[in-house]
Amino acid sequence: MATPIKRVCIRAASRPAIPPSFTTAAARHASSQPADPDSLPPLDLASLPSLAHADLQSHRELRALARKTTWEMPLLASLRRPFQPPTTAQPLRWRYTTYMGEVHPASRKVVLEFSPKDLEGMTEKAALKMAKLAGARWDPVKEVMKISCESFETQAMNKKFLVDTTRRLVKEALNEEGDAFEDVPLDTRHVTNKRMLKRQKGLVKARLRRKDGGTGFPEEWKLTDERRRELAERRGEVAKLEAPEMQALEAPSEEGEESEMHVEDGEVAMQASAQPQVEATPAISGLDAIERALELRDKEKAAEPVVVEARTPLAKGKPTRGGIPLRGRGR
């Protein structure tokens, strides 16, 4: 009996499975025409779910943009203006970040870029001083100074701060009475990193080594004859100013004159000495003080009473609990 049943199971398994149909429509309606849209019941928008309303809203936005592209975008051609490059009277280049009406914390940032050589009245000496004052904000490869600000809430306030900072830099650079920082070399470590050198294929390194001849040692730090004479003069002036103080310290202390008591007509007159008396005190050795402190500590320990701790004597033999020996604890 097992063999015929096995054959039936194999035949049933080898036949393709036909998925069951869950439709309620009869076969005679399959070839009929679709229903007329006018005969359908009206659509109730209030009964649509939230996802359907979101889909309809996206379709409305796309159609609004399509209408704007078709009818309003061509009208912008009347507002176009030809490009005019900035003149020498406009050396400052401003950069803003806009998110097209969206409120974003990064939209208040303002970036200012300019070249000191393009500023009016700026000489090479003043431009070099300005680059030293700017520090890492100076790019020696592009010869451009870049300053940014986002500390304030609006773009106008950040721009005002950048304008004031630039004015102070220019004023200090053009001030000939102040320090020119001639003995301070121009710091270019912020651009001479390995990644930039590899990306620029050695151009940065070549431009930065034009002045020092490829040695890497700043020219301002080299000790010349003029610099030696200047240092010697400064040391001489400092020595002259410190000479009276050194003589006063090296001079021996003079003993004050003894005061004399004179009694004239019942009055006592005291003639004070010109200088106060200075008594010579013996030097105190730190080793003696340490030894005395150790002796005092030993005496205090010896005076303290000795307290003997009372200990409970241990029982002899193997430890037990209720007469049962404990394994592993008597070893």
TrEMBL record:
Q: Where is the composition biased (Low complexity)?
A: 30-44
Among the Pfam families in the record, one is MRP-S28
* GO biological process, alphabetically ordered: mitochondrial translation
Any Gene Ontology CC annotation = mitochondrial small ribosomal subunit
Gene Ontology molecular function: structural constituent of ribosome
**InterPro entries found in the cross-reference section:** Ribosomal_mS35_mit (IPR019349), Ribosomal_mS35_mt (IPR039848)
Q: Where is this region: Disordered?
A: 24-44, 307-331
**Domain Small ribosomal subunit protein mS35 mitochondrial conserved per the UniProt entry, residue ranges:** 82-222
Q: What is this protein called?
A: Small ribosomal subunit protein mS35 mitochondrial conserved domain-containing protein
